[in-house]
């Protein structure tokens, strides 16, 4: 059997990273909306995580940020003239709209797409569906460029199938891999694909949150599973508990993470917890390989602590000896209850044996932890060899990107700066250079004009 691995493709933070309070239902985004940001530090924090994982022996890739402020969106909404005039009018007449088209939110690549490995799909290819992110305007404009970047990164139709996004309406609200995980014995073998939704669009009798939006629907997940050619026997759907969405858990990856034979989640994460377990075990099917449900009780760690610390927004990484490392943000270490829980967990009889902490404060202040920043792509040897090699992290790419960030990024940005035409020019120059570094071709609108 050929070797297979799980690669992580992280979003490189773009030059316009800022805090604009754009995400209703995301507590951090709301709380930090008036704070100045530091795009340079944000990009470097992300890059350090990528390099560390590559150094640990994991396959690590980079997904390029998008062109922001996005002038074509402003033009489609009636602003006219030169790019500088479009920017000036938007800043004057609709500053919140300008903030929305300036967000660097594509950094959270867990929301870029849902990915099904070749071992799970009927046609034996790796399938990608870029998420429509329709619930938030600033994110709904990501999928076109996301699709172009994914196609430039996984650029071989023999191995990679790229689907269009689902219809961009609430009924098919799709937040991508933030609400999807996969359990398997080996990355190259057929696994169990686990889809988590916030509500049903068509069955209005099913419960839904009252205060904050459920961004992702059951119908979206079912459509992705069909398009990817998944085996219904190996596919599980579960509803997120509406109460935790109302408590600030806007994606399932804020309250659960899965990998290999481990499902690590909070006891209040799912509406029907026992059914979730029974469904996963039925799909898992193999009585000889143990499956671990690592359920964190409310008395040990509250939902509020989860939202504050992002304990579950962690990366669960498999080592060759079967042990796993949990990659967590610094906020986990700073929360006494959560840190005590984790120190106890690594001594229990589960594969989770190590914890690695990263400072991702810049991203965390917008509600994005280690797991938000990465898109998982399980690949066999042939597929890995077919990935655009310029996007894979190594010592040289790390050096190149560090220098590139130093050259192009500002270390302070407030909302008023988004109107600065120099920021637009700087960003375009940076991205133009980046497409050469990552050998992506022309993926941006400004490169096509
Ligand atoms: N959990 C995962 N997988 N991703 C986190 C995404 C955070 C993102 N925040 C933002 O878009 C805030 C932008 C601002 O307010 O400026 C969001 O809410 O969609």
TrEMBL record:
Q: Name one GO biological process term.
A: L-arginine catabolic process to L-glutamate
Record keywords: Arginine metabolism, Hydrolase
Give the catalytic activity.
Answer: N(2)-succinyl-L-arginine + 2 H2O + 2 H(+) = N(2)-succinyl-L-ornithine + 2 NH4(+) + CO2
Question: What name goes with this protein?
Answer: N-succinylarginine dihydrolase
Q: How does it assemble?
A: Homodimer.
Per UniProt, the enzyme's principal EC class comes to: hydrolase
Q: Active site: which residues? A: 175, 251, 372
Q: What is its EC number?
A: 3.5.3.23
**Pathway(s) of this molecule:** Amino-acid degradation; L-arginine degradation via AST pathway; L-glutamate and succinate from L-arginine: step 2/5
Sites where the protein binds substrate: 20-29, 111, 138-139, 215, 253, 366
Q: Which GO terms describe its molecular function?
A: N-succinylarginine dihydrolase activity
- Family of the protein in this entry: Belongs to the succinylarginine dihydrolase family.
Q: Does the keyword Ribosomal protein apply?
A: no
Q: Which source organism?
A: Marinomonas piezotolerans
Q: What does this protein do?
A: Catalyzes the hydrolysis of N(2)-succinylarginine into N(2)-succinylornithine, ammonia and CO(2).
Q: Which PANTHER family match?
A: N-SUCCINYLARGININE DIHYDROLASE
